[in-house]
Protein backbone atom coordinates (compact mmCIF):
# COMPACT_ATOMS: atom_id res chain seq x y z
CA UNK A 1 0.00 0.00 0.00
CA UNK A 2 1.44 3.35 -0.94
CA UNK A 3 2.32 5.65 1.90
CA UNK A 4 1.19 9.22 1.44
CA UNK A 5 1.13 12.14 3.79
CA UNK A 6 -2.39 11.52 5.08
CA UNK A 7 -1.54 7.90 5.88
CA UNK A 8 1.53 8.94 7.81
CA UNK A 9 -0.67 11.24 9.85
CA UNK A 10 -2.93 8.29 10.60
CA UNK A 11 0.09 6.38 11.93
CA UNK A 12 0.96 9.30 14.14
CA UNK A 13 -2.59 9.39 15.44
CA UNK A 14 -2.38 5.65 16.18
CA UNK A 15 1.00 6.07 17.89
CA UNK A 16 -0.44 8.92 19.95
CA UNK A 17 -2.97 6.52 21.46
CA UNK A 18 -0.35 4.07 22.72
CA UNK A 19 1.50 4.66 26.02
CA UNK A 20 5.20 3.86 26.36
CA UNK A 21 6.32 0.27 26.90
CA UNK A 22 2.98 -1.24 25.90
CA UNK A 23 2.70 -4.69 24.39
CA UNK A 24 1.48 -4.10 20.85
CA UNK A 25 0.41 -6.42 18.04
CA UNK A 26 0.23 -4.73 14.64
CA UNK A 27 -2.05 -6.74 12.36
CA UNK A 28 -1.20 -6.02 8.74
CA UNK A 29 2.11 -4.45 9.67
CA UNK A 30 3.11 -3.92 6.03
CA UNK A 31 6.58 -2.49 5.72
CA UNK A 32 6.86 -2.10 9.50
CA UNK A 33 6.54 1.69 9.51
CA UNK A 34 4.25 1.83 12.54
CA UNK A 35 6.18 -0.80 14.52
CA UNK A 36 9.40 1.09 13.90
CA UNK A 37 7.78 4.37 14.92
CA UNK A 38 6.42 2.77 18.11
CA UNK A 39 9.71 1.11 18.99
CA UNK A 40 11.67 4.31 18.51
CA UNK A 41 9.32 6.73 20.21
CA UNK A 42 7.48 4.53 22.73
CA UNK A 43 9.88 1.61 23.37
CA UNK A 44 6.96 -0.77 22.95
CA UNK A 45 7.23 -4.58 22.91
CA UNK A 46 5.94 -4.77 19.35
CA UNK A 47 4.96 -7.72 17.16
CA UNK A 48 3.66 -7.77 13.64
CA UNK A 49 1.48 -10.01 11.51
CA UNK A 50 1.72 -9.41 7.77
CA UNK A 51 0.28 -11.18 4.76
CA UNK A 52 3.03 -10.39 2.26
CA UNK A 53 6.12 -12.55 2.70
CA UNK A 54 8.30 -9.85 1.18
CA UNK A 55 7.05 -7.33 3.73
CA UNK A 56 7.77 -9.81 6.54
CA UNK A 57 11.28 -10.61 5.40
CA UNK A 58 12.13 -6.93 5.11
CA UNK A 59 10.76 -6.27 8.61
CA UNK A 60 12.74 -9.13 10.15
CA UNK A 61 15.89 -8.01 8.38
CA UNK A 62 15.34 -4.64 10.07
CA UNK A 63 15.11 -6.34 13.45
CA UNK A 64 11.32 -6.21 13.85
CA UNK A 65 9.43 -9.12 15.35
CA UNK A 66 7.09 -9.99 12.50
CA UNK A 67 5.55 -13.20 11.21
CA UNK A 68 3.78 -14.04 7.98
CA UNK A 69 0.11 -14.63 8.48
CA UNK A 70 -3.44 -13.78 7.53
CA UNK A 71 -5.67 -11.63 9.74
CA UNK A 72 -8.63 -13.73 8.63
CA UNK A 73 -7.19 -17.07 9.74
CA UNK A 74 -4.21 -16.61 12.05
CA UNK A 75 -5.54 -14.45 14.88
CA UNK A 76 -7.15 -17.46 16.53
CA UNK A 77 -3.70 -18.66 17.67
CA UNK A 78 -3.18 -15.66 19.95
CA UNK A 79 -4.25 -15.92 23.59
CA UNK A 80 -6.95 -13.76 25.19
CA UNK A 81 -5.73 -10.33 26.27
CA UNK A 82 -2.16 -11.17 25.27
CA UNK A 83 -1.50 -7.57 24.24
CA UNK A 84 -2.24 -4.13 25.61
CA UNK A 85 -3.06 -2.89 22.11
CA UNK A 86 -3.88 -4.63 18.88
CA UNK A 87 -3.63 -2.32 15.88
CA UNK A 88 -5.36 -2.85 12.57
CA UNK A 89 -4.17 -0.04 10.36
CA UNK A 90 -5.67 0.37 6.87
CA UNK A 91 -6.32 -3.36 6.70
CA UNK A 92 -9.94 -3.91 7.83
CA UNK A 93 -11.32 -3.26 4.35
CA UNK A 94 -9.06 -5.95 2.90
CA UNK A 95 -10.19 -8.75 5.21
CA UNK A 96 -12.68 -11.41 4.14
CA UNK A 97 -14.60 -11.26 7.40
CA UNK A 98 -14.18 -7.84 9.03
CA UNK A 99 -16.65 -8.62 11.79
CA UNK A 100 -14.80 -11.74 12.88
CA UNK A 101 -11.45 -9.95 12.62
CA UNK A 102 -12.67 -7.07 14.77
CA UNK A 103 -14.08 -9.56 17.27
CA UNK A 104 -10.66 -11.25 17.44
CA UNK A 105 -8.88 -7.91 17.92
CA UNK A 106 -11.10 -7.17 20.90
CA UNK A 107 -10.40 -10.65 22.31
CA UNK A 108 -6.60 -10.50 21.91
CA UNK A 109 -6.04 -6.91 23.00
CA UNK A 110 -7.11 -5.03 26.07
CA UNK A 111 -7.76 -2.32 23.53
CA UNK A 112 -8.03 -2.33 19.76
CA UNK A 113 -7.04 0.51 17.48
CA UNK A 114 -8.58 0.43 14.02
CA UNK A 115 -7.91 2.87 11.21
CA UNK A 116 -9.61 2.67 7.85
CA UNK A 117 -10.45 4.76 4.79
CA UNK A 118 -13.96 6.22 5.06
CA UNK A 119 -16.14 5.20 2.13
CA UNK A 120 -18.61 7.90 3.15
CA UNK A 121 -16.17 10.67 2.22
CA UNK A 122 -17.70 13.21 -0.12
CA UNK A 123 -15.24 12.49 -2.93
CA UNK A 124 -16.30 8.84 -2.91
CA UNK A 125 -19.96 9.83 -2.87
CA UNK A 126 -19.38 12.31 -5.65
CA UNK A 127 -17.61 9.78 -7.85
CA UNK A 128 -20.52 7.36 -7.58
CA UNK A 129 -23.19 10.03 -7.76
CA UNK A 130 -21.88 12.13 -10.61
CA UNK A 131 -19.64 9.81 -12.64
CA UNK A 132 -21.44 6.60 -11.83
CA UNK A 133 -18.01 4.96 -11.42
CA UNK A 134 -16.40 3.16 -8.52
CA UNK A 135 -14.11 5.74 -6.94
CA UNK A 136 -10.39 5.74 -7.64
CA UNK A 137 -8.66 8.32 -5.45
CA UNK A 138 -5.25 9.06 -4.02
CA UNK A 139 -6.09 6.95 -0.95
CA UNK A 140 -7.95 4.27 -2.87
CA UNK A 141 -5.84 3.90 -6.00
CA UNK A 142 -7.18 0.53 -7.21
CA UNK A 143 -9.72 -0.21 -9.91
CA UNK A 144 -12.73 -2.24 -8.76
CA UNK A 145 -11.51 -5.43 -10.44
CA UNK A 146 -8.03 -5.56 -8.92
CA UNK A 147 -8.55 -3.99 -5.52
CA UNK A 148 -7.56 -5.92 -2.40
CA UNK A 149 -10.13 -3.79 -0.61
CA UNK A 150 -13.23 -5.94 -0.65
CA UNK A 151 -15.11 -4.67 2.41
CA UNK A 152 -15.32 -0.90 2.44
CA UNK A 153 -17.38 0.80 5.10
CA UNK A 154 -18.24 4.29 6.19
CA UNK A 155 -17.54 5.75 9.61
CA UNK A 156 -21.23 5.36 10.39
CA UNK A 157 -21.16 1.67 9.35
CA UNK A 158 -18.15 1.04 11.54
CA UNK A 159 -19.75 2.64 14.58
CA UNK A 160 -22.74 0.34 14.08
CA UNK A 161 -20.49 -2.73 13.87
CA UNK A 162 -18.77 -1.72 17.11
CA UNK A 163 -22.16 -1.51 18.80
CA UNK A 164 -23.08 -4.94 17.46
CA UNK A 165 -19.87 -6.42 18.88
CA UNK A 166 -20.37 -4.76 22.24
CA UNK A 167 -17.28 -2.59 21.84
CA UNK A 168 -17.02 0.82 23.45
CA UNK A 169 -15.54 3.65 21.39
CA UNK A 170 -13.09 5.30 23.78
CA UNK A 171 -11.64 7.72 21.25
CA UNK A 172 -12.34 8.44 17.61
CA UNK A 173 -10.48 10.68 15.20
CA UNK A 174 -11.30 11.57 11.63
CA UNK A 175 -8.72 13.04 9.28
CA UNK A 176 -9.72 15.22 6.37
CA UNK A 177 -8.16 15.15 2.91
CA UNK A 178 -5.21 17.21 4.16
CA UNK A 179 -4.54 14.87 7.04
CA UNK A 180 -5.93 17.40 9.52
CA UNK A 181 -7.97 16.21 12.47
CA UNK A 182 -11.62 17.12 12.26
CA UNK A 183 -12.80 19.00 15.33
CA UNK A 184 -14.29 16.90 18.11
CA UNK A 185 -17.27 19.22 18.30
CA UNK A 186 -18.44 18.23 14.83
CA UNK A 187 -21.41 15.86 14.54
CA UNK A 188 -21.11 12.28 13.17
CA UNK A 189 -22.64 13.20 9.79
CA UNK A 190 -19.92 15.82 9.34
CA UNK A 191 -17.18 13.28 10.15
CA UNK A 192 -18.78 10.79 7.81
CA UNK A 193 -18.85 13.34 5.01
CA UNK A 194 -15.50 15.07 5.39
CA UNK A 195 -13.41 12.40 7.10
CA UNK A 196 -11.16 10.68 4.59
CA UNK A 197 -9.73 8.35 7.21
CA UNK A 198 -10.85 7.38 10.68
CA UNK A 199 -8.97 6.05 13.70
CA UNK A 200 -10.91 4.35 16.50
CA UNK A 201 -9.77 3.29 19.96
CA UNK A 202 -12.00 0.45 21.15
CA UNK A 203 -12.45 -1.58 24.30
CA UNK A 204 -14.71 -4.44 25.28
CA UNK B 1 35.68 -31.91 37.45
CA UNK B 2 37.06 -32.67 34.06
CA UNK B 3 39.12 -30.12 32.24
CA UNK B 4 39.34 -29.55 28.51
CA UNK B 5 42.50 -31.05 27.09
CA UNK B 6 43.18 -30.06 23.53
CA UNK B 7 45.09 -32.89 21.87
CA UNK B 8 46.33 -33.67 18.41
CA UNK B 9 45.85 -37.04 16.96
CA UNK B 10 44.74 -38.77 13.80
CA UNK B 11 42.02 -40.38 15.84
CA UNK B 12 39.20 -37.86 15.71
CA UNK B 13 36.91 -40.27 17.56
CA UNK B 14 38.54 -40.87 20.96
CA UNK B 15 41.18 -38.15 20.93
CA UNK B 16 40.03 -35.45 18.51
CA UNK B 17 42.15 -32.51 17.46
CA UNK B 18 39.58 -30.07 18.85
CA UNK B 19 39.24 -29.31 22.59
CA UNK B 20 37.52 -32.03 24.61
CA UNK B 21 35.66 -31.82 27.88
CA UNK B 22 35.72 -35.12 29.75
CA UNK B 23 33.24 -36.05 32.45
CA UNK B 24 34.17 -38.76 34.91
CA UNK B 25 32.07 -41.08 37.03
CA UNK B 26 31.03 -38.15 39.24
CA UNK B 27 29.28 -36.41 36.34
CA UNK B 28 27.28 -38.94 34.32
CA UNK B 29 24.99 -37.92 31.49
CA UNK B 30 21.37 -38.85 32.23
CA UNK B 31 19.83 -40.35 29.12
CA UNK B 32 16.16 -40.46 28.14
CA UNK B 33 16.69 -44.20 27.56
CA UNK B 34 16.75 -44.46 31.36
CA UNK B 35 20.44 -45.14 31.82
CA UNK B 36 23.51 -43.10 32.66
CA UNK B 37 26.35 -42.55 30.24
CA UNK B 38 29.62 -42.40 32.11
CA UNK B 39 32.33 -41.54 31.54
CA UNK B 40 31.66 -39.45 28.49
CA UNK B 41 33.23 -36.61 26.56
CA UNK B 42 32.23 -33.61 24.49
CA UNK B 43 34.43 -32.38 21.65
CA UNK B 44 33.89 -28.74 20.78
CA UNK B 45 35.22 -25.65 19.07
CA UNK B 46 35.00 -22.05 20.19
CA UNK B 47 35.59 -18.85 18.27
CA UNK B 48 35.96 -15.33 19.63
CA UNK B 49 36.19 -14.28 23.28
CA UNK B 50 33.70 -14.62 26.10
CA UNK B 51 33.12 -11.14 27.54
CA UNK B 52 33.42 -10.38 31.27
CA UNK B 53 29.65 -10.47 31.75
CA UNK B 54 29.57 -13.82 29.87
CA UNK B 55 26.64 -12.44 27.93
CA UNK B 56 27.90 -12.72 24.36
CA UNK B 57 27.89 -16.51 23.90
CA UNK B 58 26.21 -18.08 20.88
CA UNK B 59 25.72 -21.84 20.76
CA UNK B 60 25.55 -23.35 17.29
CA UNK B 61 23.85 -26.75 17.02
CA UNK B 62 24.90 -28.89 14.07
CA UNK B 63 22.73 -31.01 11.82
CA UNK B 64 22.57 -34.79 11.28
CA UNK B 65 26.03 -35.29 9.80
CA UNK B 66 27.57 -32.00 10.88
CA UNK B 67 30.22 -31.46 13.51
CA UNK B 68 31.83 -28.91 15.81
CA UNK B 69 34.00 -27.46 13.05
CA UNK B 70 31.50 -24.78 12.15
CA UNK B 71 33.91 -21.96 11.35
CA UNK B 72 37.31 -23.59 10.96
CA UNK B 73 38.90 -26.17 8.69
CA UNK B 74 37.51 -29.65 9.15
CA UNK B 75 40.35 -31.97 10.25
CA UNK B 76 38.87 -34.97 8.42
CA UNK B 77 37.91 -33.45 5.09
CA UNK B 78 40.26 -30.46 5.02
CA UNK B 79 37.28 -28.36 3.88
CA UNK B 80 36.23 -25.01 5.39
CA UNK B 81 33.85 -24.99 8.35
CA UNK B 82 30.28 -25.82 7.38
CA UNK B 83 28.92 -22.36 8.27
CA UNK B 84 31.98 -20.25 7.57
CA UNK B 85 29.97 -18.02 5.23
CA UNK B 86 27.90 -16.97 8.24
CA UNK B 87 30.28 -17.18 11.18
CA UNK B 88 33.71 -15.63 11.51
CA UNK B 89 35.53 -12.34 11.99
CA UNK B 90 33.49 -9.59 10.34
CA UNK B 91 30.79 -12.05 9.28
CA UNK B 92 27.12 -11.77 10.18
CA UNK B 93 27.81 -13.74 13.34
CA UNK B 94 30.93 -11.76 14.05
CA UNK B 95 33.44 -13.64 16.17
CA UNK B 96 35.08 -10.32 17.02
CA UNK B 97 31.88 -9.58 18.88
CA UNK B 98 30.43 -12.91 19.92
CA UNK B 99 31.81 -16.00 21.60
CA UNK B 100 30.67 -18.87 19.40
CA UNK B 101 30.53 -22.43 20.75
CA UNK B 102 29.82 -25.51 18.67
CA UNK B 103 30.08 -29.03 20.03
CA UNK B 104 29.85 -32.43 18.41
CA UNK B 105 26.60 -34.01 19.61
CA UNK B 106 26.57 -37.05 21.85
CA UNK B 107 26.21 -40.04 19.53
CA UNK B 108 28.32 -38.29 16.90
CA UNK B 109 31.65 -39.45 15.54
CA UNK B 110 34.00 -36.49 15.70
CA UNK B 111 35.13 -36.62 19.28
CA UNK B 112 32.06 -36.63 21.46
CA UNK B 113 31.08 -39.99 22.91
CA UNK B 114 29.29 -42.04 20.27
CA UNK B 115 28.99 -45.61 19.03
CA UNK B 116 32.49 -45.51 17.51
CA UNK B 117 34.05 -44.38 20.80
CA UNK B 118 35.89 -46.87 22.92
CA UNK B 119 33.65 -48.37 25.58
CA UNK B 120 35.79 -48.23 28.75
CA UNK B 121 34.04 -51.34 30.05
CA UNK B 122 35.21 -53.51 27.15
CA UNK B 123 38.04 -51.62 25.52
CA UNK B 124 36.17 -52.01 22.21
CA UNK B 125 33.98 -49.56 20.34
CA UNK B 126 30.48 -49.23 21.83
CA UNK B 127 28.71 -50.19 18.64
CA UNK B 128 25.07 -50.82 19.42
CA UNK B 129 25.82 -51.13 23.15
CA UNK B 130 25.54 -47.36 23.34
CA UNK B 131 22.03 -46.50 24.54
CA UNK B 132 19.77 -44.66 22.10
CA UNK B 133 20.55 -40.94 22.24
CA UNK B 134 17.76 -38.37 21.99
CA UNK B 135 17.77 -34.72 21.02
CA UNK B 136 17.18 -33.91 24.68
CA UNK B 137 20.22 -36.00 25.68
CA UNK B 138 22.35 -34.00 23.24
CA UNK B 139 21.07 -30.75 24.74
CA UNK B 140 21.65 -31.99 28.29
CA UNK B 141 25.27 -32.62 27.39
CA UNK B 142 25.56 -29.18 25.76
CA UNK B 143 24.20 -27.66 28.97
CA UNK B 144 27.06 -29.28 30.89
CA UNK B 145 29.48 -27.69 28.42
CA UNK B 146 27.80 -24.29 28.78
CA UNK B 147 27.96 -24.65 32.57
CA UNK B 148 31.65 -25.45 32.26
CA UNK B 149 32.16 -22.03 30.67
CA UNK B 150 30.18 -20.43 33.50
CA UNK B 151 27.62 -19.05 31.07
CA UNK B 152 24.36 -18.34 32.85
CA UNK B 153 22.43 -17.30 29.78
CA UNK B 154 23.31 -17.96 26.16
CA UNK B 155 22.78 -14.90 24.00
CA UNK B 156 21.58 -17.07 21.14
CA UNK B 157 21.15 -20.73 20.23
CA UNK B 158 20.88 -21.42 16.53
CA UNK B 159 20.93 -24.31 14.13
CA UNK B 160 19.23 -25.89 11.14
CA UNK B 161 17.43 -29.20 10.68
CA UNK B 162 18.50 -31.54 13.53
CA UNK B 163 20.33 -28.52 14.93
CA UNK B 164 17.02 -26.66 14.86
CA UNK B 165 15.44 -29.45 16.91
CA UNK B 166 18.15 -28.92 19.53
CA UNK B 167 17.42 -25.18 19.47
CA UNK B 168 13.73 -25.88 20.14
CA UNK B 169 14.64 -28.30 22.92
CA UNK B 170 16.93 -25.69 24.48
CA UNK B 171 14.29 -22.97 24.27
CA UNK B 172 11.64 -25.26 25.72
CA UNK B 173 13.49 -27.06 28.51
CA UNK B 174 16.02 -24.38 29.43
CA UNK B 175 14.21 -21.22 28.32
CA UNK B 176 15.71 -19.19 31.17
CA UNK B 177 19.19 -20.04 29.80
CA UNK B 178 18.38 -18.85 26.26
CA UNK B 179 17.98 -15.16 25.41
CA UNK B 180 17.22 -15.75 21.75
CA UNK B 181 16.61 -18.81 19.60
CA UNK B 182 16.96 -19.25 15.86
CA UNK B 183 15.62 -22.60 14.64
CA UNK B 184 16.03 -22.92 10.87
CA UNK B 185 14.43 -25.41 8.45
CA UNK B 186 13.25 -27.65 11.22
CA UNK B 187 10.19 -29.07 12.94
CA UNK B 188 8.87 -29.75 16.42
CA UNK B 189 8.59 -33.40 15.44
CA UNK B 190 9.80 -35.75 12.75
CA UNK B 191 7.05 -36.53 10.27
CA UNK B 192 6.09 -40.02 9.22
CA UNK B 193 7.66 -39.40 5.82
CA UNK B 194 10.90 -38.28 7.44
CA UNK B 195 11.02 -41.36 9.66
CA UNK B 196 10.38 -43.44 6.54
CA UNK B 197 13.39 -41.98 4.73
CA UNK B 198 15.56 -42.53 7.77
CA UNK B 199 14.43 -46.13 8.02
CA UNK B 200 15.44 -46.71 4.38
CA UNK B 201 18.89 -45.37 5.24
CA UNK B 202 19.26 -47.51 8.34
CA UNK B 203 18.13 -50.64 6.52
CA UNK B 204 20.69 -49.95 3.79
CA UNK B 205 23.45 -49.80 6.42
CA UNK B 206 22.25 -52.90 8.24
CA UNK B 207 21.82 -54.88 5.00
CA UNK B 208 25.51 -54.42 4.21
CA UNK B 209 27.28 -57.69 5.21
CA UNK B 210 30.21 -55.58 6.39
CA UNK B 211 28.02 -54.07 9.10
CA UNK B 212 28.37 -57.24 11.23
CA UNK B 213 25.55 -56.38 13.61
CA UNK B 214 27.27 -53.10 14.37
CA UNK B 215 30.62 -54.73 15.33
CA UNK B 216 32.36 -53.93 12.05
CA UNK B 217 35.45 -52.41 13.66
CA UNK B 218 36.12 -55.72 15.38
CA UNK B 219 36.00 -57.40 11.98
CA UNK B 220 38.28 -54.81 10.46
CA UNK B 221 35.49 -53.69 8.13
CA UNK B 222 33.12 -50.79 7.55
CA UNK B 223 29.70 -50.99 5.87
CA UNK B 224 30.67 -48.45 3.26
CA UNK B 225 28.29 -49.58 0.54
CA UNK B 226 25.27 -49.51 2.82
CA UNK B 227 26.17 -46.15 4.30
CA UNK B 228 26.77 -44.68 0.85
CA UNK B 229 23.32 -45.81 -0.30
CA UNK B 230 21.82 -44.32 2.87
CA UNK B 231 23.52 -41.03 2.11
CA UNK B 232 22.42 -41.08 -1.53
CA UNK B 233 18.78 -41.54 -0.57
CA UNK B 234 18.98 -38.90 2.14
CA UNK B 235 20.77 -36.45 -0.12
CA UNK B 236 17.81 -36.43 -2.52
CA UNK B 237 15.60 -35.26 0.34
CA UNK B 238 17.92 -32.32 1.00
CA UNK B 239 17.42 -30.97 -2.53
CA UNK B 240 14.37 -30.06 -4.54
CA UNK B 241 13.06 -31.42 -7.80
CA UNK B 242 13.48 -27.98 -9.36
CA UNK B 243 17.09 -27.65 -8.21
CA UNK B 244 17.97 -31.15 -9.40
CA UNK B 245 16.45 -30.38 -12.76
CA UNK B 246 18.22 -27.03 -12.97
CA UNK B 247 21.57 -28.56 -12.06
CA UNK B 248 21.47 -31.91 -13.84
CA UNK B 249 18.36 -32.26 -15.97
CA UNK B 250 18.78 -35.47 -17.96
CA UNK B 251 22.37 -34.60 -18.84
CA UNK B 252 24.69 -37.52 -19.54
CA UNK B 253 27.91 -38.04 -17.63
CA UNK B 254 31.05 -37.85 -19.83
CA UNK B 255 29.35 -39.63 -22.69
CA UNK B 256 27.49 -38.87 -25.88
CA UNK B 257 24.79 -41.53 -25.66
CA UNK B 258 23.15 -44.00 -23.32
CA UNK B 259 25.26 -47.11 -22.77
CA UNK B 260 22.38 -49.54 -22.35
CA UNK B 261 23.88 -50.67 -19.07
CA UNK B 262 23.89 -49.74 -15.41
CA UNK B 263 26.87 -47.44 -15.33
CA UNK B 264 26.23 -43.89 -14.18
CA UNK B 265 24.93 -42.69 -17.54
CA UNK B 266 23.30 -39.62 -16.03
CA UNK B 267 25.06 -36.80 -14.24
CA UNK B 268 22.68 -37.08 -11.32
CA UNK B 269 23.70 -40.72 -10.79
CA UNK B 270 27.35 -39.82 -10.85
CA UNK B 271 26.72 -36.92 -8.48
CA UNK B 272 24.87 -39.08 -5.97
CA UNK B 273 27.51 -41.82 -6.10
CA UNK B 274 30.13 -39.18 -5.38
CA UNK B 275 28.07 -37.86 -2.45
CA UNK B 276 27.79 -41.39 -1.06
CA UNK B 277 31.48 -42.18 -1.46
CA UNK B 278 32.80 -39.00 0.11
CA UNK B 279 30.36 -39.36 2.99
CA UNK B 280 31.64 -42.78 4.10
CA UNK B 281 35.14 -41.33 4.35
CA UNK B 282 34.06 -38.92 7.02
CA UNK B 283 31.17 -40.54 8.88
CA UNK B 284 30.68 -43.59 11.06
CA UNK B 285 27.85 -45.92 10.00
CA UNK B 286 26.59 -46.67 13.52
CA UNK B 287 26.65 -42.99 14.35
CA UNK B 288 24.40 -42.46 11.34
CA UNK B 289 21.94 -44.95 12.84
CA UNK B 290 21.98 -43.13 16.17
CA UNK B 291 21.68 -39.65 14.66
CA UNK B 292 18.72 -40.58 12.48
CA UNK B 293 17.02 -42.27 15.44
CA UNK B 294 17.39 -39.19 17.61
CA UNK B 295 15.49 -37.13 15.05
CA UNK B 296 12.79 -39.81 14.64
CA UNK B 297 12.16 -39.81 18.38
CA UNK B 298 11.87 -36.02 18.60
CA UNK B 299 8.32 -34.85 19.32
CA UNK B 300 8.28 -31.73 21.44
CA UNK B 301 4.48 -31.57 21.74
CA UNK B 302 4.28 -35.20 22.91
CA UNK B 303 6.69 -34.29 25.71
CA UNK B 304 4.12 -31.71 26.85
CA UNK B 305 0.83 -33.55 26.85
CA UNK B 306 0.33 -33.19 23.11
CA UNK B 307 0.05 -29.40 23.13
CA UNK B 308 3.03 -27.71 21.53
CA UNK B 309 2.20 -24.32 23.06
CA UNK B 310 2.74 -25.86 26.50
CA UNK B 311 6.34 -26.59 25.50
CA UNK B 312 6.88 -22.83 25.46
CA UNK B 313 4.61 -21.73 28.31
CA UNK B 314 5.92 -18.60 29.97
CA UNK B 315 8.94 -18.35 27.69
CA UNK B 316 10.83 -15.06 27.64
CA UNK B 317 13.09 -16.21 24.82
CA UNK B 318 12.97 -14.23 21.57
CA UNK B 319 12.43 -16.50 18.59
CA UNK B 320 13.11 -16.23 14.89
CA UNK B 321 12.10 -19.12 12.66
CA UNK B 322 13.16 -19.58 9.06
CA UNK B 323 11.84 -21.98 6.44
CA UNK B 324 12.42 -22.42 2.72
CA UNK B 325 9.69 -22.70 0.09
CA UNK B 326 11.22 -25.75 -1.64
CA UNK B 327 12.13 -27.66 1.54
CA UNK B 328 9.98 -30.78 1.47
CA UNK B 329 11.79 -32.43 4.37
CA UNK B 330 10.75 -29.68 6.77
CA UNK B 331 8.09 -27.78 4.85
CA UNK B 332 7.04 -24.29 5.90
CA UNK B 333 3.96 -25.73 7.60
CA UNK B 334 6.23 -27.34 10.22
CA UNK B 335 7.68 -23.95 11.11
CA UNK B 336 4.28 -22.33 10.96
CA UNK B 337 2.85 -24.73 13.53
CA UNK B 338 5.73 -23.81 15.86
CA UNK B 339 4.98 -20.12 15.24
CA UNK B 340 1.32 -20.66 16.11
CA UNK B 341 2.33 -22.44 19.31
CA UNK B 342 4.67 -19.59 20.19
CA UNK B 343 1.89 -17.07 19.49
CA UNK B 344 -0.38 -19.02 21.80
CA UNK B 345 2.34 -18.94 24.45
CA UNK B 346 2.64 -15.17 24.01
CA UNK B 347 6.25 -15.46 22.89
CA UNK B 348 8.17 -12.91 20.88
CA UNK B 349 8.52 -14.47 17.46
CA UNK B 350 9.62 -13.57 13.96
CA UNK B 351 9.10 -15.93 11.08
CA UNK B 352 10.61 -15.73 7.63
CA UNK B 353 9.87 -18.03 4.73
CA UNK B 354 12.50 -17.71 2.04
CA UNK B 355 11.69 -18.24 -1.61
CA UNK B 356 14.35 -20.53 -3.06
CA UNK B 357 14.52 -23.70 -5.14
CA UNK B 358 17.53 -25.03 -3.21
CA UNK B 359 15.49 -27.24 -0.89
CA UNK B 360 16.32 -28.21 2.67
CA UNK B 361 20.07 -27.66 2.18
CA UNK B 362 19.44 -23.96 1.56
CA UNK B 363 20.21 -23.29 5.21
CA UNK B 364 23.83 -24.32 4.64
CA UNK B 365 24.22 -22.16 1.55
CA UNK B 366 24.80 -18.48 1.04
CA UNK B 367 21.19 -17.30 0.88
CA UNK B 368 21.16 -13.49 1.04
CA UNK B 369 17.65 -13.39 2.50
CA UNK B 370 18.57 -15.93 5.18
CA UNK B 371 21.62 -13.92 6.12
CA UNK B 372 19.59 -10.68 6.14
CA UNK B 373 17.02 -12.22 8.49
CA UNK B 374 19.71 -13.59 10.83
CA UNK B 375 21.48 -10.24 10.77
CA UNK B 376 18.31 -8.30 11.61
CA UNK B 377 17.28 -10.72 14.35
CA UNK B 378 20.71 -10.98 15.99
CA UNK B 379 21.15 -7.22 15.76
CA UNK B 380 17.90 -6.37 17.50
CA UNK B 381 18.41 -9.13 20.09
CA UNK B 382 21.89 -7.76 20.81
CA UNK B 383 20.44 -4.28 21.37
CA UNK B 384 17.82 -5.75 23.70
CA UNK B 385 20.55 -7.67 25.55
CA UNK B 386 22.64 -4.51 25.86
CA UNK B 387 25.53 -5.89 23.81
CA UNK B 388 27.56 -3.15 22.16
CA UNK B 389 27.97 -3.27 18.41
CATH homology group of chain A:
Vaccinia Virus protein VP39
User: Which strand order spans the largest sheet of chain A, edge to edge or round the barrel?
Assistant: 3-2-1-4-5-7-6
Distance between the termini of chain B: 35 Å
Task: Count the DSSP helices of chain A.
Answer: 7
In a few lines, what is going on in this structure?
Helices cover 34% and strands 22% of the residues of chain A. With 204 residues, chain A is an alpha/beta fold.
Structure description:
The complex is a heterodimer of chains A (204) and B (389). In chain A, helix 1 crosses helix 2. Chain A is globular, with a radius of gyration of 16 Å. With 204 residues, chain A is of the alpha/beta class. A seven-stranded mixed sheet of chain A has the order 3-2-1-4-5-7-6, with helices on both faces. In chain A, 34% of the residues lie in helices and 22% in strands. Chain A has one domain: Rossmann fold (3-Layer(aba) Sandwich). Chain A has seven helices and seven strands, in the order H-E-H-E-H-E-E-H-E-H-H-E-H-E. Mean pLDDT of chain A is 90; it is low at 1-6. Chain B is an alpha/beta fold and 389 residues long. Chain B has two domains: 20-190 and 300-385, Rossmann fold; 194-294, Rna Polymerase Sigma Factor, Chain: A (Orthogonal Bundle). Chain B has an eight-stranded mixed sheet with strand order 1-4-8-5-9-10-11-12, with helices on both faces. Chain B has a two-stranded antiparallel sheet with strand order 2-3. In chain B, helix 4 (224-238) crosses helix 6. Chain B is globular and about 65 Å long. The interface between A and B is medium-sized, with 21 and 26 residues.
